[in-house]
Amino acid sequence: MATIKDIAQLAKVSNATVSRVLNYDQSLSVSDETRQRIFEAAESLSYTKNTKKNNNHRGRIAIVEWYTATEELEDLYYLSIRLGVEKKLQELGFEVTRFFQNDPFDTLYDAAGVIVIGKYSLGQITRLKKLNRNLVFVDMNTLDYEISCVMTDFKTPVKAVVDHFMASGLTKIGMLTGQESTSDNVKLDTDPRSTHFKHYLKKQNNFHPEWLLTGDFTPESGYQLITQLLHEQAENLPEALFIANDAMAVGALRALHEAAIKVPEQLSLISFNDTSICQYTFPTLSSVKVYTEQMGQSAAELLIKQLDAEQVIPQVITIGTSLTLRNSSK
């Protein structure tokens, strides 16, 4: 595990700044550029170390991110996937061009191929296909659109989280989740984690709708949902919470700390994604490990195979997960 000092040295900032940024300290005034250096340093130090840059120029690959550069800093899941893609492409000798949500995509046509990260509407997918036919999506199932994609498993880890809570004697289980929309304001389907969570607990006659709260996957949303839960369910709080991403969990921890509710003694938490911030919260966050580096690398390898193939057969690659237990859960 990289230390705060390691990250500070790589990002060229103080230890205190690193700690506050990784905990999404709202009172800290720091530029997006500095935040990006810190988050990218933290993520890169958690990656495997056998990077070998290939200096043979094999062409240009574009990476399209559904977030703006600023929004990406609020959810390290997507930043981590992007870094995994870039690392693999550089190893393979490709030049990389980044496009964020608010960048014009008109030059995508002259890239050898495009790796698209995040979630998009039908209209956006149609436009991307017109600009470049060599596409691979990451974190969205695009097989129905005859486009290959790389996904993570959701059903198995949700069951693992619930089973862990129950094996620890915690049967009053709630969840914080989020609702997403594309950048052109098309509402997306319900978070599959909450769908599996609800289904699995209903099978055991143990689902409590009052403990399933929906926000928007940001630290501030996690903070607000915990505040709402403490207000509305003060006499009927759950014993454990599954939180759909790490950013929300950081905000939830802050709200619980302010309310003097001890984690995990009074409320156990397990989040999802296991980005680098989980190791630097207090207490450290238990989280479902999503292998974002592998997702990015698999997307890069899949695209390169498509470029070399005479016939492209769309496929889905699903990457497994594992449960990483730390101090926020019993």
From TrEMBL:
DNA-binding among the record's keywords? yes
Write down the SUPFAM superfamilies for this protein, in alphabetical order: lambda repressor-like DNA-binding domains, Periplasmic binding protein-like I
Asked whether the keyword Protein transport is assigned, the reply is: no
Keywords noted in UniProt: DNA-binding, Transcription, Transcription regulation
Q: Name one GO molecular function term.
A: transcription cis-regulatory region binding
- What CDD domains does the record tag this protein with? HTH_LacI (cd01392), PBP1_GalR (cd01544)
Which stretches make up the HTH lacI-type domain? 2-50
Q: Which SMART domains did the record assign?
A: HTH_LACI (SM00354)
Q: What is this protein called?
A: Galactose operon transcriptional regulator, LacI family
